[in-house]
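Kindly draft a sequence, keeping tokens residue-aligned:
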Amino acid sequence: MSLLARFFPPPSVRIAGLDSQAAARLAAIHATAFARPWSTLEFERLLGERNVTADGLFIGQASAPSGFVLSRSVLDEAEILTVALLPELRGRGYSRPLLAAHLDGLSRTGVLFVHLEVEDGNAPALAVYRRLGFREIGRRAGYYLKADKARTAALTMRLDL
């Protein structure tokens, strides 16, 4: 059974590919989730790269995404660069179908291994990643700078598709 089938989104949720026209919206969502948000220009540049894949989470009939995942692929490996949802959607199960659809799409393009980094202590994200089959393969001490200027570790994780 594919990841997409295991975590198929409810009927009111649609997952669709994104392009550079979504850059401003992605920057706005990203700013609600990270101490060092990426700019619209950074998203435009990433979304313009051939090896970058972006999927958006659309609720109901919405024309703008309420969340997204962005990854970069090289040969048979991909790295999830960032995932973010609007604050009101966090903790409500929307990240699972978004990530499952994204991973399914990566698999269909020949990706065999997916890597990511996540802040140590981000229990909700770690739970989702582990449920999808990611396993911890490393740790980077003091990697993330938090809003209060404290530093926290990043856990590196891998999924074999």
Observations:
- The mean pLDDT is 91.
- The CA atoms of residues 65 and 79 lie 21 Å apart.
- The chain has one domain: 3-116.
